[in-house]
Amino acid sequence: MDAIDKYNINLLGVDEQQRRLEKVKEQMRAAGISHALVRNNVNIYYLTGRVFRGFIYVSTDIEAPYYFVREPNHLVSDHHAPDSHIRKPEEIPALLAAKGLKNDSPIGLELDTITYSEARRLAACFGKEPSANISPCLRGARAVKTAAEIEKLRCDGKKQSLVYERIPHCFREGMTDVEFQIEIERASRLEGCLGQFRVAGSDMELFMGNVLTGHNADTPSPYDFAMGGEGLDASLPVGACGEIIRENMPVMVDVNGNYNGYMTDMTRMYIQGEPSENALQVLALSSDICRTLAGMMRPGAKACDLYNKASQMAADAGMADFFMGHRSHAGFVGHGVGIEVNELPVIAPRSRDILAAGNVIALEPKFVVPGLGAIGIENTYVVAAEGEPEVLTKASEQFIRLD
Amino acid sequence: MDAIDKYNINLLGVDEQQRRLEKVKEQMRAAGISHALVRNNVNIYYLTGRVFRGFIYVSTDIEAPYYFVREPNHLVSDHHAPDSHIRKPEEIPALLAAKGLKNDSPIGLELDTITYSEARRLAACFGKEPSANISPCLRGARAVKTAAEIEKLRCDGKKQSLVYERIPHCFREGMTDVEFQIEIERASRLEGCLGQFRVAGSDMELFMGNVLTGHNADTPSPYDFAMGGEGLDASLPVGACGEIIRENMPVMVDVNGNYNGYMTDMTRMYIQGEPSENALQVLALSSDICRTLAGMMRPGAKACDLYNKASQMAADAGMADFFMGHRSHAGFVGHGVGIEVNELPVIAPRSRDILAAGNVIALEPKFVVPGLGAIGIENTYVVAAEGEPEVLTKASEQFIRLD
C-alpha cells in the first residue's frame, strides 16, 4: 500500500479507494486485462477524489495503484518521491520495472476516450499496439455508485432542489429565455454550482443547461441530449434562443447540478399565468411515467423494459408522436449520472443494461408538443437493494408559477 | 459544387467556404493525403459555419465537400437528399461510390482528436487501419484566419472590451473572488457571451474564466493554462477559491470571450484601493512585454524569438522566478486563438512556429508574486501583412479601480 500512504494524492481515504479499485479490477479480470494506465480526468477523479494531469497504474496483481504525475508536480515532489513525477509517459515502464513490476501482457488503455495518437503513443511505451480497452471496465465500475458517491449525489440533489425553489425569483415579466437562464445560472453558481458540465463524447456540448419555451423546443439539435433548441448561435445549436417568455406558455428548466464533482439531473416546469388543460395533462403523464418507472427500478430489472413501459404509456395516451421530441426524437428516456451526465445504465429500447443496486439514474420522460413547447420533468434516483428507489431531486412536479 | 448548392448546410457562403477548404487541401497535399473525413465539432464548424453531427468528406480531387449528416437530420432530409443522411459511418463508402468517387489511398482522419476506438471504426469502413492524420492539416489551416474570421474576432473583441469596462460595476466590498466572478459571468452572458469554452485537449477544463486574487494565484493547477488557482473543489482544481477580495490586493480577471463561435482572450487587473509600487512595476513590465512582442509580430517572425524576448525582459527586471507563475511555471507566453482557445501558433521556447499574416495571437505575459498574487495583462492581436498587428482587446492596461 506504499503509494497510498507515501503521497497525499488520494483524497478518498484508503478504504473508499480500495472499494472503487476493486470494482475496476473485477471488470478488468472479466475482460482479461491484467494491468492498465488510467489518464482521463473523470477516471482519475473517480480513483483519487482529485484531478491531476498524469496516469494511474492499476494492476490486478497489486493492491495499491501507482501514480505518475505530470502536473501539478508539487503533489509528488513535496513528498520527496521523484520516481512518481514524470515529464512524459515514456518514463513509466522503467519506473515500473524499478519497482519490480513486470507484466508483458497488453496494457489496458481508455481506448473509447483517449485519442488515437495518444493511444498509440502510450502502447508504444510498452512496445505494443493498443489492444486492451479498459473504457468499458471503468464505465461499468462507475455505474454502481459506492455509499460515499451516493452521499455526494444526495448533497447535489439538495442544493439543486434549493436552486429550483428559487427559480421563480429569477423571473421578471418580458424576459427572454436566455435572460431567464442567465439569472438561473447565477442563482446556481451562488449556491455553489461548479458550472463545469462533464459529458462523455467529444461532440457533446452544452453550457450550464437548457431553458426551453415555445416553438424553440421543436428545433432539432445535433447533440444527443433529450431536448433540442436552436441556441443563440450556429456554433452551439442547442437550448434557449432569445425567445420572449409569454404568458400561459410553459417553460422547461433543466440546469446543471454539479456541486461537488458529481451531478444530479433535474427538470421542472414553470409558467407565468395558467397552463392549458392540455399542458396539465402532458405534465401529469410525464410525472406518471416517472413514478411508474421508478416503481420498476429494482436490481435485476432490464433497462429496455423501463424504456418500453414509458413508450407504451406515451402511446396509450395518444402522445407517441411527441414523446422525447417531435420533429426529432431522442432515443432514450433515462441515463446514469455521476461524474458525467451520461453514464450507465442507459434506459433505451435496445439497451442490454440490467439495473443494479447503487445505479444512479435520471429519468426524463419529456414531450414536445407544437403550440405548447417542451413539457416534462426529470428526477434522479438511486436504485436501492430492496424497495423503492431514493429520489434525490425534490420539488413540486406541477407547473410552478412565475408570477 | 452540387453539395454546396443542393443543401443549405454551408452558412459561410460558397467563396468563404472554398477559401477555407483550399487552405485545408493545401495542407493535405503537402502531407500526401488525398481524401479525408472530418467529424470534430470545431472543424465541422470551421468548414460550414455550423455544428452538426456527422462527417464532411474532403478530397483534393473534387472542389466541393460532401456532407454526411447524422443529426439534425432535417438539415438534409428537408432538402430531399436521402443519400446524405446517414445513421452510421459504415454507410459512407457505398454513398461515395454511388457518386462515382473512388479513392483507395488511406482516408485522412483527425487522429489527434478522435478516440482510438472511433479512428479504428472509421478507417475500417474503408477497409484500412488509421494511418493518415489530418489533425495537423486542420490545425495549420485554422492558424491563418480569413478576413471573415478576423471580422468575427473583431466583434468578439469589442463585446469583450465592453464587458471589461463594466467589471467595476460587478464589484461590491467584501465579495469573494467567486462571487465577483459570478457577477462578471452574468455581465458577459447578458452581453451575448455563449459561455462555451472550446479548448483542444480532453484534459483541459475551465468554467467561463479565471479570477485570481491573493495567495490563491500561487496554487499550481493540473491544467496547462497560463495561471492556476485552487478552484472551489478538487474535481476542478483551477481558478477562484472563495478568497475574500481585500483592499489594495490586485485581482486578475481573465474571462471567456466567445460571443459568436470565435474567441478573443483578454486579461485585465482590478483593485479596490491602491496598488503598491511593486504591483505597479510588475504590471508595467507585463504591458511593456506585450508592446515589445507586438512590435515583433510580423510575418516570418519566429514564435520562439518572441518567447525568448519576453523571458529575457522578465529576467532583466529581476522577475525570472515569477514569470508565468512561481511555484509552477507555464511553458508559453502566448497562443493562437480562434474557435478554440489554444490554437497555433504557440509562443513558447521550443516552438517551431513561424508567424504569418492572419495569425490571431493572445499574448499573456503574467507574473505570480508572493504577497501580490497574479499580475499581468493579456491582449489578442491579428498579425498584419505589413506593419503593426491589430489589437482586438481594448481597455486600460493600468489597474482599474473597483471603488
Question: What topology does this entry show?
Answer:
Two copies of one chain form a homodimer.
Chain A: H1 2-6, H2 14-31, E1 35-38, H3 41-48, E2 53-59, E3 66-71, H4 74-77, H5 92-98, E4 108-109, H6 116-125, E5 132-133, H7 135-143, H8 147-166, H9 177-190, E6 209-213, E7 251-255, E8 268-271, H10 277-296, H11 303-316, E9 334-336, E10 343-347, E11 360-363, E12 366-369, E13 373-376, E14 379-382, E15 390-391, E16 400-401
Parallel strand pairs in A: 4-5, 8-16
Antiparallel strand pairs in A: 1-2, 2-3, 6-7, 7-8, 9-10, 9-11, 11-14, 12-13, 14-15
Please, could you describe this protein's structure?
- The structure is a homodimer of 403-residue chains.
- In chain A, the strands form five sheets. In chain A, strands 10-9-11-14-15 form a five-stranded antiparallel beta sheet. A four-stranded mixed beta sheet of chain A has the order 6-7-8-16, covered by helices on one side. In chain A, strands 1-2-3 form a three-stranded antiparallel beta sheet.
- The relative contact order of chain A is 0.11.
- Chain A has helices spanning 2-6, 14-31, 41-48, 74-77, 92-98, 116-125, 135-143, 147-166, 177-190, 277-296, 303-316, and strands at residues 35-38, 53-59, 66-71, 108-109, 132-133, 209-213, 251-255, 268-271, 334-336, 343-347, 360-363, 366-369, 373-376, 379-382, 390-391, 400-401.
- Helices cover 32% and strands 16% of the residues of chain A.
- Chain A has eleven helices and 16 strands.
- Chain A has 403 residues and is α+β, with helices and mostly antiparallel strands.
